[in-house]
Design goal:
The chain is mainly alpha-helical and about 290 residues long. The chain folds into 3 domains: about 110 residues, no CATH class; about 70 residues, no CATH class; about 90 residues, no CATH class. The chain is built from 9 helices and no strands. The protein is extended. The two termini are about 40 Å apart.
Length: about 290
């Protein structure tokens, strides 16, 4: 009974206020304790936090879950008590994770502003880039929230969905995001295409059987996109007598057989690696990053 109702309290009850106070005091005590603790104690606290948070989700996956649970239902045995408790804990753990992620995002923004502000103040090398970064961030935040406020909290908000009714904040946000940011992002990816082409040239040089297979497969897939080549291939006498040798059929057969099976094999390998890393983190076997 206690386990099942730990996260559930009526509004205005004394237990709700006690838990809210504890939820505020206990994390502060832990944070101050970590700040003044030795590296060994820090690792122990971090390891215990990893284990407890991971244990909640492990139990959620393997422990029997309550079926058709009613709001005021009382568990009948220990198994149901643990199931109720875990089911109630998972949403709370997810909310805590979202809150921590939000604080980390704010910490990242503060760190970026602090580092680049110091570069500006000291006229460090490449300080104009820091000025552009901070200015761009502030402009996006100002016009983004300004336009968001006009759309959601003013009478003219519904009409701002039509570009004909845009105001200055709407045009400014559109110019900064669609006119500048996305265009620069597209230009960056277009530059990356040249590096990919250079890497493909080095990979396709015939030096081994694997490189030859890679070159032949890539050549077939490229020729498939060329209409003239596909038509000449289809008009060849041998291809007319064997419809399965059509360039379109071959180009579809390769991804559906070799590529799909290879990708599944890679996915299995990545999944096993992620599982092994998750277990190492959960059991505090991965020591890197725990001594901060």
């Amino acid at each position: 009974m206690i386990l099942a109702s730990f996260w559930v309290n009526q509004s205005g009850s004394i237990w709700l206020f006690v838990k809210l106070i504890l939820a505020f005091i206990v994390p502060l005590a832990i944070f101050y304790g970590i700040k003044d603790a030795s590296p060994g104690v820090r690792r122990a606290i971090i390891g215990a936090t990893f284990f407890l948070t991971g244990l909640v989700y492990v139990l959620y996956l393997i422990w029997p879950k309550p079926i058709h649970r009613q709001p005021n239902e009382i568990p009948q045995n220990f198994s149901e008590s643990v199931g109720f408790f875990v089911s109630d804990t998972v949403p709370v753990a997810a909310d805590v994770a979202n809150i921590v992620a939000t604080f980390l995002l704010g910490l990242g923004v503060f760190s970026v502003i602090k580092i680049h502000s110091e570069k500006l103040a000291r006229r460090h090398r490449d300080w104009p880039f820091s000025l552009v970064l901070i200015g761009s961030m502030l402009l996006m935040v100002i016009f983004g929230y300004w336009n968001y406020y006009l759309k959601n909290y003013t009478p003219a908000g519904p009409s701002l969905g039509n570009p004909a009714n845009w105001t200055f904040p709407s045009f400014a946000e559109d110019f900064l995001f669609n006119g500048l940011y996305q265009q620069m992002e597209a230009a960056m990816f277009s530059l990356i295409a040249f590096f990919i082409l250079s890497a493909a040239y080095r990979a396709f040089r015939i030096r081994s059987i694997e490189a030859t297979v890679l070159l032949g497969t890539a050549l077939l897939l490229v020729l498939r996109t060329m209409t003239v080549v596909s038509q000449l291939w289809a008009d060849a006498p041998f291809v007319r007598d064997h419809p399965n040798m059509q360039l379109e059929s071959i180009a579809k057969w390769l991804p559906n057989t070799f590529q799909s099976s290879s990708i599944r094999g890679v996915d299995f390998g990545v999944g096993i690696g992620l599982l092994a890393m998750a277990l190492r983190l959960w059991l505090s076997l991965e020591k890197q990053g725990q001594g901060a």
